[in-house]
Specification:
The chain is of the alpha+beta class. It folds into 2 domains: about 80 residues, no CATH class; about 150 residues, Band 7 domain (Tetrahydropterin Synthase, Chain A, 2-Layer Sandwich). It is built from 5 helices and 14 strands. The protein is rod-shaped, with a radius of gyration of 26 Å.
């Protein structure tokens, strides 16, 4: 079996974790870690040593935790088996999110349920490589930002939905005029999501609620807009 003498990964920025496809290493193997990367060693399903940016020649000194699990004597280029995961530590911007289906929310001003859609984007950064790989991606050869967005979609939409509904009720915001509140609501939702991401080793760098709207072709929305237009016309006529 051929022994790998050099390990490196140069891949697209949307890949957060990539597993080197072979496990045949040896003392003396070079592991190249690019800027904004970490190389995480696994053996027997256990996360062990982490190497930061640079070109590393594997020695007992720089992977001491792995060395303890290797039964073969060390020295020279003695072979051993271990998994290497490359973790992308750069900030990944512009991860999209949005509601698949409109959320029914009671408009506090007009007392009708309106179908609300919400869309936005966020940026994340892997803060703890071990926690992230162990909990999210250790069974996959590759883990991308799209997979992360899908993984967090449920909790993200739940937090966003609850916060939007709560803010609308507390501040008595007309859903047809909600755009003025998007910045404050973005900050509030980010604060609520921070712990949900953090326990998986992910830092939520920013979170944006870009739009909250209602479908123009919805029957309730059409009726409400018609009623508001008629009321506005009557108000104008009444002032004359």
């Amino acid at each position: 079996m051929a022994i790998i003498d050099r390990v490196k990964y140069d891949g697209p920025g949307n890949v957060l974790v990539w597993r080197f496809p072979q496990e045949d290493l040896s003392w003396g193997t070079q592991v190249v870690v690019n800027q904004a990367q970490e190389a995480l060693f696994f053996k027997g399903g256990q996360a062990l040593d982490v190497l930061g940016p640079g070109t590393h020649t594997l020695r007992t000194a720089n992977i001491p935790l792995l060395r303890k699990l290797i039964e073969a004597p060390f020295g020279g280029e003695t072979p051993f088996a271990a998994e290497i995961y490359y973790v992308n530590k750069a900030v990944n911007m512009d991860v999209k999110w949005g509601t698949n289906n409109p959320i029914p929310v009671l408009d506090p001003k007009y007392s009708v349920f309106l179908p609300v859609r919400a869309f936005g984007q966020f940026a994340i950064q892997v803060a703890d490589s071990k926690s992230f790989v162990v909990q999210l991606s250790a069974t996959s050869p590759e883990f991308t930002t799209d997979q992360l967005a899908n993984y967090f979609r449920g909790v993200l939409l739940t937090r966003a939905k609850d916060y939007i509904a709560e803010t609308i009720v507390k501040k008595k915001i007309n859903l047809l005029e909600i755009s003025a509140y998007l910045e404050d609501m973005s900050s509030g939702i980010q604060a609520k999501l921070a712990d949900d991401f953090g326990k998986y080793g992910v830092k939520l760098v920013n979170f944006y609620l870009n739009s909250v709207d209602v479908p123009e072709d919805d029957d309730t929305v059409i009726r409400l807009k018609k009623a508001l237009a008629e009321k506005a016309e009557l108000d104008i006529l009444g002032d004359k």
